[in-house]
Amino acid sequence: MKNFELFLQQTGLPFFYLKVGLALLSSFLITFYSVPTIIKISRRKNLMDEPGQRSSHLRKIPNLGGIAIFYSIGICASIFAHEIFDLYKFLFASLVILLYIGVMDDIMVMRAYKKLIAQILVSVVLVLGSDVRIRSLFGIFGIYELNYFVSAIFTIITFIILINAFNLIDGIDGLAGGYSLLCSALFGISYYRLGVYNYPLVILCVCIIGSVMAFLYYNLSHYRTTKIFMGDTGSMLLGFLLAFTAVCFIDIFIDKEIPGMPRYHLKAAPAIAVAILILPIVDTLNVIAIRLINKKSPFEADKNHIHHKLVRMNLTHRRSSFYIVCYYLMIVCVAYCFRHIDVNLLLLIVLSLGFLGAYIPDIICRFQPKKNQSKL
Question: Which residues of the chain have pLDDT under 50?
């Protein structure tokens, strides 16, 4: 790889852009050609997602699309962004553990506590083994630098919440994949603008984008024979990787002196990261609050998610996903425009707009004739 890079430098071709292009193309093609095989095996072995109380589909659909996503990202990131796995040595091990637990759950339906134990394990391995931590809150609630113990515990909890939050928004076609696409693109652009030292993270985001784009081709298909879900395998992997990129994004802006490394300053970095991941955060907090108010278990499945509300308005899965992604992209734009104001105020604005988005469908339904609403 180094000899090839020297050759390209002599010819004047930009090596980084070539790697980005190859990573995007390779990750797309690997997923694109892996999914049909997974669908074929799933149908032959009857490894399908059965329609249930919480599901929004009426037929059995293969739900092992997450395997193709892992396969693609694992190969392409290891080749084109190998520096990440050199720096964060336990990252790949964590992904493999999540793959195993996710596949087991998609096939056999594991108990919640077993999945939680696995999520805690991968979070602890990455946080303690690779020192991936939220080290500062940049003045949120008057808190700045965190001591090691608090930082580690807080980061582990953050990983667990985001892994499960992405699992919860995976309720209709295209939403989890489309939002992962948006988050990866936003983090990738941010890393690119922050300079050459962050280029491996750019390529990781590009690998996620290519893989998810290919997956969405099948997930949004109108044909039953080519349709597939990402399952818990895909949602947990994407939630984990996006949590990882978010923590790395926040860490870049901590004012620290490292020889040869530029120093960045953005006190609103945590609020920007929250804005990018606002949908799964708000949706999870909202449904848990509703369950507690109704004196139900916070782990009990229901249909109070944002996407369920839109489907009840007779919107298709595609339109519901599109509207949700567009609204929460608007929140990111607002956060970016006001990134230089006080971090507490910006966080309040971001969360307020996020929760407003969760209740806009309810407001619309109040003024919509009941005959136009479906009984999902």
Answer: 11-12, 374-376
The string of DSSP codes covering 232-295 is: HHHHHHHHHHHHHHHHHHHHHTS----TT------TTHHHHHHHHTHHHHHHHHHHHHHHHHTT
Question: CA–CA separation, 64 vs 49, rounded Å?
Answer: 9
Global pTM value: 0.91
Separation CA 132–CA 126 (nearest Å):
6
Rounded to an integer, what is the distance from CA 288 to the centroid of its chain? Answer: 19
Could you give the CA distance from residue 301 to residue 298 in angstroms, rounded to a whole number?
8
Reduced to 3 states (helix: H, G, I; strand: E, B; else coil), residue 143 is: strand
Burial of 363 (0-12, 13-18, 19+ CB in 10 A): exposed
Under a CB-based contact definition with an 8 Å cutoff, are residues 347 and 140 in contact? yes
Q: Give the number of other CB atoms < 10 A from CB of residue 105.
A: 21
> What type of residue sits at position 343?
V
Q: 220: number of CA atoms within 13 Å, CB side?
A: 18
- From the list 108, 132, 328, 106, the residue with the least C-alpha distance to 234 is 106
- 231-252 and 65-80 helices cross at what angle (nearest 10)? 40
The one-letter code for the residue type at 186 is L
| Spatial distance between the Cα atoms of 206 and 128, rounded to a whole number of angstroms | 26
Residue 248 to residues 153, 194, 375, Cα–Cα distance (Å)? 16, 12, 43
| Residues above pLDDT 70, as percent of the chain | 90
Burial of 347 (0-12, 13-18, 19+ CB in 10 A): buried
